[in-house]
C-alpha cells in the first residue's frame, strides 16, 4: 500500500512523497490531492512512533529516534505494541462475531494490515467503520485505506478525542453509523496520551452515554509494569512528541469502564484477553492492560 507521503528515508521510485505543487491547495485534509502544507519533522508523533515500533515505514527520523529511546529503556517495547495490535484484532473479531456491525475507531493512527475494518469485514462484509484521528497526516495515510472502500460503509474523520462531542456530532460519523443500533467504540493505545487534567474518565463517559444499549467500548492502556523507574525512562521517548505518555494502574484503567459490564476476563494484560491459543508465558512483560465493556 502506498500512502500519501512516506518518511524521507523511505521515498523512492513509485512512492508518493510530498508534492510541492499541490501543498497548501485548500484546507480540507480529506480532499483529493491534499497533502499537509507543513510537516514538522522536528517533533515526533505518537502514531508514527507506534508505526516505528511495529516495524512500519511511515515515520521520520525524529520518530525513529524517539522509538530508540523507548527501546533502549524497554527492550520489549516492540513485543508490547505487537501484542496490543493483536488484542485489537481479537476484540473486534469477538464483537463482530457477537453481532456488532458498526465500529468507531478513535485514535486509529496509521492504518495497516489487521486494522479494524479488515477484521470486522472478515466476519461481516458490510460492517460500517469510522476512523478518527486528530492528526491530518494520519488522514493522508488513511485515504489509501478509504480509496477502495464503499463510502457508505467507511469514513475518516479528523477530530480530537479530547473533544468527544466533536466526534459524536460529526456529520460524517452519522452518515455511516446508525446510533439507534449497537456501536463498538475503540480507544486502543489512546487514553495514555490523555493527561490527568484532560479527564480520560469523562471522555469515556461521554462516548458511553451517547451509545445505544448493546454497544461496546474497547480500551487498552499502557502501565508501568510494576517498574516505575524503567517506565519513566521509556516514556522519555515521548518528551519531544505532540502528546506525552501517562501511565495508569489497573484500578484506574478498570474505572474507565464504569457503567459498563466487563466481558470476562475483565481488564487484564492484553495477551491474557481471550487469546487464540495458550497465552505467552511471559505475559507479565507486556505493559498494556485491556478490556471490553458492554452497555446493557
Structural class: alpha/beta
Low-confidence stretches at least 5 residues in length (pLDDT < 50)?
Answer: 1-25
Largest sheet: 8 strands, mixed
Calculate the mean pLDDT score and round it: 87
Radius of gyration: 18 Å
Shape: globular
Measured by DSSP, the beta-strand proportion falls in 5-15%
CATH architecture designation of one domain: 3-Layer(aba) Sandwich
The CATH class name of one domain reads Alpha Beta
Distance between the termini: 39 Å
How are helices and strands ordered from N to C?
HHHEHEHEHHEHEHHEEE
Number of distinct beta strands: 8
Protein name: SAM-dependent methyltransferase
GO molecular function: methyltransferase activity
InterPro entries: SAM-dependent_MTases_sf (IPR029063), SAM_dep_MeTrfase_SAV2177_type (IPR006764)
Keywords: Methyltransferase, Transferase
Question: How does this model look, in words?
Answer:
There is one protein chain. The protein is of the alpha/beta class and 296 residues long. It has a domain at 92-225 and 245-277 and 285-294: Rossmann fold (3-Layer(aba) Sandwich), CATH 3.40.50.150. 33% of the residues lie in helices and 13% in strands. Strands 1, 2, 3, 4, 5, 6, 7 and 8 form an eight-stranded mixed sheet that branches. Helix 2 (61-73) runs antiparallel to helix 9 and helix 3 (77-97) runs parallel beside helix 4 (116-123). The longest helix is centred in the N-terminal third of the chain and has 21 residues, at 77-97. The chain starts with 45 loop residues before the first helix and ends with a strand.
Amino acid at each position: 500500500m502506498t500512502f500519501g507521503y512516506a518518511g524521507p528515508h523511505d521515498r523512492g521510485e513509485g512512492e508518493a512523497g510530498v508534492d510541492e505543487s499541490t501543498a497548501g491547495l485548500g484546507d480540507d485534509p480529506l480532499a483529493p490531492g491534499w497533502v499537509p502544507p507543513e510537516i514538522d519533522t522536528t517533533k515526533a508523533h505518537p502514531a508514527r512512533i507506534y508505526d516505528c515500533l511495529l516495524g512500519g515505514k511511515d515515520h521520520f527520523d525524529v520518530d525513529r529516534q524517539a522509538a530508540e529511546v523507548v527501546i533502549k529503556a524497554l527492550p520489549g517495547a516492540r513485543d508490547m505494541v505487537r501484542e496490543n495490535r493483536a488484542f485489537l484484532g481479537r476484540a473486534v473479531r469477538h464483537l463482530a462475531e457477537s453481532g456488532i456491525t458498526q465500529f468507531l475507531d478513535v485514535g486509529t493512527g496509521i492504518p495497516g494490515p489487521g486494522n479494524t475494518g479488515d477484521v470486522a469485514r472478515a466476519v461481516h462484509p458490510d460492517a460500517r467503520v469510522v476512523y478518527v484521528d486528530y492528526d491530518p497526516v494520519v488522514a493522508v495515510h488513511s485515504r489509501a485505506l478509504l480509496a477502495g472502500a464503499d463510502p457508505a460503509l467507511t469514513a475518516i474523520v479528523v477530530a480530537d478525542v479530547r473533544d468527544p462531542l466533536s466526534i459524536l456530532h460529526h456529520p460524517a460519523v452519522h452518515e455511516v453509523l446508525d446510533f439507534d443500533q449497537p456501536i463498538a467504540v475503540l480507544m486502543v493505545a489512546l487514553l495514555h496520551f490523555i493527561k490527568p487534567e484532560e479527564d480520560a474518565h469523562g471522555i469515556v463517559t461521554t462516548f458511553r452515554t451517547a451509545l445505544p444499549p448493546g454497544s461496546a467500548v474497547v480500551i487498552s492502556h499502557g502501565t508501568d509494569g510494576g517498574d516505575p523507574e524503567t517506565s519513566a525512562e521509556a516514556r522519555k521517548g515521548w518528551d519531544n512528541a505532540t502528546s506525552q505518555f501517562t501511565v495508569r494502574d489497573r484500578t484506574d484503567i478498570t474505572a474507565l469502564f464504569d457503567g459498563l459490564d466487563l466481558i470476562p476476563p475483565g481488564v487484564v494484560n492484553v495477551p491474557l484477553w481471550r487469546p487464540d491459543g495458550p497465552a505467552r508465558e511471559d505475559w507479565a512483560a507486556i505493559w498494556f492492560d485491556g478490556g471490553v465493556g458492554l452497555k446493557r
